[in-house]
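Preliminary data (for renewal application), iron/sulfur cluster complex.
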Amino acid sequence: MRNRVRSADDLARFVQPTPDEVAAIERLARRFHFVITPYYAALMDPDDPECPIRRQVVPRTAELEDPTGLPDPLDEVAHSPVKNVIRVYPDRIAFCVNNECALYCRFCLRKRMVGDEEWTMKRRELGEALEWIRRSPEIRDVLLTGGDPLVFADDRLDWLLSELRSIPHVEIIRLGTRLPVTLPFRVTEALCRMLERHHPIWVNTHFNHPRELTPEATEACDRLSRAGIPMGNQSVLLRGINDDPGTMKALCEGLVRMRVRPYYCYQAQRLEGTAHFRVAIERGVEIFRSLRGRTSGFAIPQYVLDTPHGKVPLSHPYLRGREGDDVIVETYEGRVWRERNPPERSA
Ligand code: SF4
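Predicted structure:
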């Protein structure tokens, strides 16, 4: 963390920055932080400015050309009953315990807050959020996110998990972390031993491209799995990075080999400075349709659009309709199949 890339000069140790990248680092770094771990920077192709690793973390002036982008497209601020707690559903919350990450992804949904001091959670504020959870018996599922909760030191995270575990109605604790991807050495045996004391713990991580599936990342995920933690992956569909069937298939199959279940792939939000990353929803639907029947079912994530009112699954309409007593469905090869539909029973 101390040795992170923070400037165009630092970046030049790994790749030759283009004039556009240098200009963007100077003009944008104060609006949305520019920091990369040396580990992740070393995954970049030094000769290719279109490298899918590089494009995720190195600014471009295209970030300045997004007239329709919004700072908070999911209206998370309006869904916060207490600082850094986001509640969209009745029974679960996202608890942004930390405003720091190992690096800052250019498409980050929370770019309004990550890396910004104003959103740091002081111990007192963490306590107030915990008190709110304690007073809200309908909350059974808490997602620790941020920022990245694994940026916390082990003892601070241990304290937070112990506090949550002392609340009887909190059944599940999930951690949303990109550190297995961006700083896999953070996933130590000591961290895993601590986490397994607080089960049931689930971890969702965030791989976007098969080149991120390195031996180091594989070991980090393996350590978490061996601690009994079910691992899921939430990717974002990003133009020029993973928006083609071959790349998405390689990513999903590689994740399954690592025992990480591809869980969601998000449609990129209408977030400020990200127009150059966004892909038409129809294209996303076709990418995931092309995987159906051509790889293991559990290797296919659900493609979703997040909205201020919850997630909406986006899928090809396999259910075509009804004819008489039959429903008409479409198979993965495009064949039509009639299935006799059992009559609805009256209560
Ligand atoms: S790791 Fe996650 S929270 Fe942090 S900058 Fe990237 S997308 Fe945002």
